[in-house]
Amino acid sequence: MTVTLDIARRELSSFFRSPIAYVMAAAFAVLACYFFFQAFEPGRPVAGLWQYTFGHLVKVMVFLLPALSMRLIAEEFRSGTIETLMTAPITDTQVVVGKWLGVMGLYVVMLVVPLAAMAAVVFGHAMRDPGMGQFWAGAGGLLLVGGVFMAIGLFASALTQNQIVAWVLAVVMLCSLTFVTEYLYEARWLSNELREVIGYVDLTQQADGFARGLVTASSSLYLATATALFLFCAVKAVESRRWR
Amino acid sequence: MIQLENLVKRFGPVLAVDRLSCTIEAGSVVGLVGPNGAGKTTTIRMLTGYLPPTAGRAVVAGFDVMDQSRQMRRRIGYMPETTPLYPEMRVHEYLDFRGRLYRLPRRQRRERMAFVIDRCGLVPVQRRVISALSRGNRQRVGLASALLHKPQVLVLDEPTAGLDPNQILEVRHLIEELRGRQTVLISSHILPEIERTVDRVMVIGHGRLLADDTVAGLRAKVDAAEEVVLEVGTEPAALKRLLERLDEVAGVEVHSRDGWAQAVVRAGNGVDPRPALASAIASSGWTLREMRSRHATLEEVFRRITVQAPGIGGQEEGKGEQKGR
């Protein structure tokens, strides 16, 4: 575990030494506030506010988050540092999980700034029902969905040594779990049972459930399982690239 | 300390390493030499546990590289070719990170870091960002990180590539200091760069072990390959006929050179052919313009060994030779 955390720490600190972390955090904060103020009306109850804000954020994340995860493993293979890493007495799983934790650390930092600002605005207007329960549930949902996004990004990054290719692969995979499922969920030519399954798989609907204040075991379990699955795929991808 | 048994690595249809077997004793310094593409890096990657062998077995420091990989990796220090490092980290941060990967406790980590920073001459640059370092300093960082966890076996893949002669000398001194304490395996495609450092040289070409000898043994082959160059005022064909009749001559090549016949004579079984050559030419009445002996360098012997490998196409030979220089 300590080695995993050491890898996470190195990864996180390397983010803060490149402009990408700052650019992404700024873009994320600006977009988050933009969605927030589109829905926010002083004095009104907050019913749909968090749902609207977080719902739009998830869609933006499909394009933004892969830009953070794309270099994680691709860069190691490109520069050859993977060789020094893999000949140290550590396992592939420690490397993959460490990198995932590192990028999640950055993601949490990115989330905290705009979310704190939003909460401050809502409190500042001293509204009767600030909907903080939904806020916390929604934030937790964003965190869990982001975990899946990062695991998919990490898997994509393990498949290639080109960061741009890794970004495209991740966006394609994420689109199929968000925009494509969203479209299919509305499709009338599919049976109701199938549409129900698709709705469950859809990551935007999962995030939406949290933003409505519905924290269910099945949702949490689904997101955690998806994260674990893609991390497992990333480990296998790293392994197979060495074995070839 | 290192034991390879019929090691084979196949990349699809390409046979990169072909039944390589050897034993390297503890404390020795061994050079792995061969032209580019000979299979040096692949061999090294297999014995450091990075690549699994297709067939065969490798045992390093008493542990099988596949079955007991983690124990083995703890005991081996490896500096890959081109010394990959994280450019955004500072030197001391990088070494600290490496120490953590090997789970050195804090105090030991501090001690070992101070030791390798001092030993590898990194004191003035230890707080610098790696991307700002020169090629030579990066090499030192790579070497320092390979030595950090006190490995029993040190494997250096092309440690002198891209360094200037002074830096090559520094690397040599560093390895000299490790002699006897650690088993060292150094690969290079340039034999003279490591010939003074190593006790033993393994020459590989096209994935096969072509020669495994001490430096002195290779030298003996060099001395046996002494040649004499003659320039005589006559027809090349006539000179060739005369020289081929002599017992002392094992082989001869004659060319025409601005009106003179130039012969390159290989002596047979260690006899000095010069007296016989001189008297033969004098008695035939030709003018002798030049006679000098030419020592083949280790490099030439190396090239002869790697180029003569059986079953290799002519074109590839030329390529290997060119790159090997």
Output the keywords.
heterodimer, A: 244 residues, mainly alpha, B: alpha/beta, Rossmann fold, Alpha-Beta Plaits, six-stranded mixed β-sheet, four-stranded antiparallel β-sheet, 12 helices, disordered C terminus
Strand and helix map with partners:
The complex is a heterodimer of chains A (244) and B (325).
Chain A (H helix, E strand, L loop, with lengths): L1 H14 L3 H21 L9 H21 L1 H9 L1 H6 L5 H33 L7 H28 L3 H15 L1 H8 L5 H10 L1 H9 L5 H27 L1
Chain B lengths: L1 E10 L2 E11 L4 E5 L6 H8 L7 E6 L2 E2 L4 H6 L1 E4 L11 H11 L4 H14 L15 H13 L5 E5 L7 H14 L4 E6 L2 H5 L4 E6 L2 E7 H10 L2 E6 L3 H9 L4 E9 L2 E8 L6 H11 L3 E7 L3 H10 L6 H11 L1
Parallel strand pairs in B: 3-8, 3-9, 6-7, 7-8
Antiparallel strand pairs in B: 1-2, 1-4, 4-5, 9-10, 11-13, 11-14, 12-13
Shape of chain B: elongated
CATH topology of the largest domain in chain B: Rossmann fold
| Radius of gyration of chain B over all CA atoms, rounded | 25 Å
Strand order across the largest sheet of chain B: 6-7-8-3-9-10
Strand content of chain B: 25-35%
Number of strands of chain B: 14
Alpha carbon gyration radius of chain A: 19 Å
Shape of chain A: globular
Based on secondary structure, the structural category of chain A is: mainly alpha
Element string of chain A (H = helix, E = strand): HHHHHHHHHHHH
Percent helix of chain A, as a range, is: over 70%
DSSP strand (E) fraction of chain A?
under 5%
What's the story with the biggest beta sheet of chain B?
Answer: 6 strands, mixed
Oligomer: heterodimer
The number of domains of chain B is 2
